[in-house]
Amino acid sequence: MVSQEANALRRSEPFIERLQRFGKSMLRSPITLVGTIIIAVIIVQALSNILQGEYDFELFVKQLMVGLAQGSIYALVALGYTLVYGILFMINFAHGEVFMAGTYIGFFAIDAMNKTGFLEQHTLLSLLIVFLVAIVSSVLVAVTLERIAYRPLRNAPRLVPLITAIGASTFLQRAFVGLFGSSPRVYPNVHFYILPQVFHLECNAVDGVETCLGMDLVSGRYPLQFLGIEILFRPFYLVVFLAAIAMMATLWYIVRRTKTGKAMRAVAEDKATASLMGINVDSVIVTTFVLGAALAGAAGVLFALYNRQVVPTMGFAPGLKAFTAAVLGGIGNIPGAAVGGFFLGIVEAVAPSLLNIPNQLENVIAFGMLVLVLIFRPSGILGEVLTEKKA
Amino acid sequence: MTLSRKSINSGLAIGAGTAFIALIGMLTVFQGRFIITGVLPLSTIILAGLLLAAGYVAARRLPADSGRTSQLANGALAGAVTVLVMVAAVLVATQINAWALGLTMDPVLPNVNDALRALLALGQEQPLVGYVLLAGLGLLLGAAGSQIGVLSNQVKGMTVQVILIIIVLGMLQDQINSIISLLDAVWITLFVTLGYAIAVWRNHHRLVQRLVEPLLIGAVAAIVGGLLLLAGGANATTAPALFGSPAPAILSSFILGRSTVGMLVLLAVAGGALSAVGGLISCSSAGVHRATTTLLASLLTLGILNSTKTITLPAAIVIAIILVATQLLTLRTAARAQEFHSEFKPDEKRTNQILVAIAGLAFALILPQLMTNYINNVLGLIGLYIMMGLGLNIQVGFAGMLNLGYVAFFAIGAYTVGILTTPNTLTCGGVSPIPTSPQDIAAVCTGITTFWIAWPFAILASGIAGLLVSVPVLGLRGDYLAIVTLGFGEIIRIVTLSDAFKPYLGGAQGIVNISPPVIDLTGISASLVNTGLPLLSDLGRAVAQPLRLTQATDVYYLILAGIVVTMFISYRLSNSRLGRAWRAMRSDETVAQAMGINLVRTKLLAFFIGAAFAGVGGALFGSYIRSIFPNSFTLIVSINVLSLIIIGGLGSLPGVLIGAAIIFGLPEALREFQEFRLLMFGALLVVMMLIRPEGIIPPSTPRLEDQAQKALAEEGA
């Protein structure tokens, strides 16, 4: 309530006074000042690059597409972190491995179907099966993890489950290396053609009769002209983005509109009270893990369909980035994780060439941006909801 | 007699675990690794252990009043089910691999091979016969396991301990079989026991009396022993022949090349000191007592290993007997020593504790002289991690600020020393290319300093980095701090890896040829020799050349000094005003602030001091390894350090020592099994946290808090 009044007051202030106040706060906190300077430098650098013609709209659109796809993956995995954090206040460090488990087991399904020719004949069905296998594997791993490693420690000091999670993460990674070997496995090149009547693409002329397969949604790349530029458009990036949006919408519906979701929100608020209201806290927590793992498993297959190579250590880096994304958006906050994921994906794709950052320093971007965001919004982009509720 | 369904479940669960171990190829790899030479490979121990566990768990889950037959039957059932699950899993996996092969896929489970099937078939021609035999073994071992519950906890604990120790010894046998000879181990043990026995027999209540009597009697006994040796024909030249092989290095060094008087004096000093230690132990706290008996038992064990070279069956039995006997003895005596210890007057108690600390330090000083180079390297590494653990303990344990990027400060320390002591753009005044020949380097690179000048800079650099990281996150909650520090750790690693900073940091090639610490006392060497005094002139001759501290042993001492200093600082801080402020802040920031604690200052100090400790470690690491690469500073190091302080007990100083020994000693012990090392490490972390979430040695409550709680309890009553 107080903050609302303060906001109202701030809004009524004349611009000059607001600027003065901002200036004073700069002086009071050198950190904000440094943050502002850094952001100013970034903007100047970007502008100078654009004005010198080293960066153009075509490049931007290209990178935006890649960024959106990568961001979708980050967002889906970040949701797993945020869901668990929202309820247990614990960083599920092993979530990256849950992501990996689904992707890796999914490989065996898709590889077997590819080798038998089933994939080519019934592509849609095969893809559904792969998604199902991946989701089920991820869910199984996550539920086992919760049962063995986290549930007994629910009342332990907060650092203890963190260490267990780190241990479980190492264990899962090495267990997959032990079981399946450490050599990389490669997802087959999937071709999924749609609507040959509409898209006259991938055409073959045999004896003067032209047959078209349609648009290859997974592996196809087609030149596309719009707004005066020509780019090589990969439909799969759009598919990944739409699929992620659809899954997030489903998750949002579950959390906001169903009884299960209501129970989850109640448990997040107060476990003891929730259990007095007749909510089975354990099963709600399991549901949370299931939801997060299902998203991670699906994200894993999407990721592997365009990145193709899978190894048991593949969960670490996306896991770390997704965790960063979750914090960026405000950890514990579901829309925040989505926003953070997209934001991180896009900035990571766009920033290196926009700001002339050397390739090797690309990974610094994610964390650097995180620090910058946290300086100005200490609880993440959308973190306000949580802090007001918990504070 | 009833067969319970739960027994089948136990069998299924443990069978799944066993199947996992088989499928990852652990059994096949460990088949060739003998714990008891020629008799018992590690794979057999693991398999038997799991079957026994199946029986034990099944019996425990029976109703309390079930009879022995019931227990036996259910245990046997669980054991058999375990075997069946494992065999079934392996057969299914074989079939899956066959299918994959049919589809021209790579094998799905590459570790399921003929060797594994032969192992499970117990080497029989007909696999089926082998599997049935194995199931029979499962029945037997399961039934045996069901009776473990009958044993008392004490016996159970002791058996497990003895078995674990023998397994560790077996795995390390090649590394540790030349540490100390049996004769040396025996005489050392004898003198300590002598002193202990005298102190207990005389039963004085004053600390001085408990020390002086054993000292004198021990010295006399040593002289008598020396005379006997002389009478037996031992002298400066014949000693080796008398002792045979392997020669007792310590004892020989007292005799070889020395005059009769010199030999007797040395013997008397050693015997007296050891006996005095025995006397000291008889009135020390139970923990110290237990540590000493364990140490003596390990000495004897190592001695036995030295004479047999590998663990043979008789050696294993003797070692087991020694371990059990020590345990039994300690159980009785430790309590009595503790009783004595607590009856001491405060000042005597303090003297006792200081003496124990001195004895411990003396032991730590002698230790590397006995050990092989490999073990000294491991000890050095553990030492570095102790230092880092102490630093992180200040940030996380004392101040409650979670830091997942601690390795960054370690890296900054190492890189500072690396940069300041090698030729690069900075130290050579920006010339390009960097000179390579020694003459050019000496002429141009005037910025190069020695380790001694560089290390304070390393500490400062790390400390300042600590401040810089903590400033933007001062107002953040714990988990945000965790991710920012994690990010910082990664940033530092990526920056050191990048080409952009290559002229300074060397990029992926890192910094090589870092000069070791050099002790240059050549200036006073001559005057020392000229004094003509025996010890001083020896020393003078020894330092005639500058001492380059490159050996693991040399660096061990540097690291030991570092540990002693950081440990002392930590200890003093923990009860200081600042330490109390940290604890208050950890419990509740708002209340702490209300009590007048300046949160910003306190947090910054925690980060500064914690980071500076890592800087010390990093500086030593850099000059010890002498080549540093960005990949030595990955996230896993931060995680390891965090794990070690949590396993040891968050906020507890002895916990850091134990934690470091476990987190780094154990993986070193398992180094041979490269592929399973991290797997076991991960599993161990989980298990450890499940069994003891508060750590091995939880920090003791400070005295005042303790008193306050007691007072509250009394009021309530």
Describe the structure concisely for a colleague.
The complex is a heterodimer of chains A (391) and B (717). Chain A has 391 residues and is mainly alpha-helical.
Q: What features would you describe in this structure?
A:
The complex is a heterodimer of chains A (391) and B (717). Chain A is 71% helix and 7% strand. With 391 residues, chain A is mostly helical. Chain A has a domain at 61-183 and 244-390: ABC transporter involved in vitamin B12 uptake, BtuC (Orthogonal Bundle). The model of chain A is unreliable at 385-391 (pLDDT under 50). Chain B is mainly α. Chain B is built from 31 helices and four strands. Chain B has a two-stranded antiparallel sheet with strand order 1-2. In chain B, strands 3-4 form a two-stranded antiparallel sheet. In chain B, helix 4 packs antiparallel against helix 6 (127-146), helix 8 (182-202) crosses helix 12 and helix 16 packs across helix 29. At the A-B interface, helix 5, helix 8, helix 13 and helix 15 of A face helix 20, helix 28 and helix 30 of B.
Structural topology:
The complex is a heterodimer of chains A (391) and B (717).
Chain A: H1 2-12, H2 15-28, H3 30-51, H4 57-88, H5 95-116, H6 118-121, H7 123-150, H8 159-180, E1 185-186, E2 193-194, E3 203-206, E4 209-212, E5 215-216, E6 222-226, E7 229-233, H9 235-257, H10 259-269, H11 271-276, H12 281-307, E8 309-310, H13 316-329, H14 334-354, H15 362-376, H16 384-390
Antiparallel strand pairs in A: 1-8, 2-5, 3-4, 6-7
Helix pairs in contact in A: 2-3, 4-9, 4-12, 4-13, 4-14, 5-7, 5-8, 5-12, 5-13, 7-12, 9-10, 9-12, 10-12, 13-14, 13-15, 14-15
Chain B: H1 5-23, H2 26-31, E1 34-36, E2 40-41, H3 42-60, H4 68-102, H5 114-120, H6 127-146, H7 153-176, H8 182-202, H9 207-231, H10 239-243, H11 249-255, H12 260-281, H13 286-308, H14 313-343, H15 346-370, H16 373-398, H17 407-421, H18 438-444, H19 451-470, H20 478-497, H21 502-505, E3 518-519, H22 522-531, H23 534-542, E4 547-548, H24 552-574, H25 577-587, H26 589-594, H27 599-625, H28 635-648, H29 653-669, H30 674-691, H31 703-716
Antiparallel strand pairs in B: 1-2, 3-4
Helix pairs in contact in B: 1-3, 1-4, 3-4, 3-6, 4-6, 7-14, 8-9, 8-12, 8-13, 9-12, 13-14, 15-24, 16-24, 16-27, 16-28, 16-29, 17-19, 17-20, 17-27, 19-27, 22-23, 24-27, 25-27, 28-29
